[in-house]
Amino acid sequence: MGKRIRIINEPSDIVPLLRAFGIESHKKVFESLQTGWKTDEDIEKEVGFNPTESLGILKKSGFVESKWRMPQPGKKPEKEYHSSYSRVQVNFECSVEDLSDMIMVTFKTDNELRNYLDLIEKEVKAGNQSMNGLQRVIDKSIMYIRAVARRSPILTVKGQRIEIFGDTE
Questions:
Q1: What's the pTM value of the predicted model, to 2 decimals?
Q2: Which residues of the chain register pLDDT less than 70?
Q3: Structural domains of the chain, count
Q4: Which of the 8 DSSP states describes residue 130?
Q5: How open is the CA angle 62-94-164, to the nearest 5 degrees?
């Protein structure tokens, strides 16, 4: 199966990448998916644990694709997954301060970021979705806000806006 190269041009895209591959369990799930399409059950048998959290993080970071498997007559369809990329090319420039913020956001605990996540989610739900508007309210750099949003399971960054992440399947 031929694999593609993931090109990262946006600095904050490294946050989900580092989170996905900074944890051994996520890496095991990704490696399992390198060999072909697999269901949750197939992955769990291979890696020895429930892959739901790992699949969510890998999917949000863009390293896993999913589709519905056609079932046998009378059975329910199952979602199956496989890895989208086998290589990464990173091409961006940013200030050391922004890079430092992104690395810190990547490795902080959820509790350490909870106040910022809650504030950003509240603002986005209230209609304040622009980076500049959020920067005025949160008093952090745009790159910091982007990094926190990329870390959130319910937020997604779209250009200069942050939106609530919806599962489009």
A1: 0.80
A2: 1-2, 166-169
A3: 2
A4: B
A5: 40
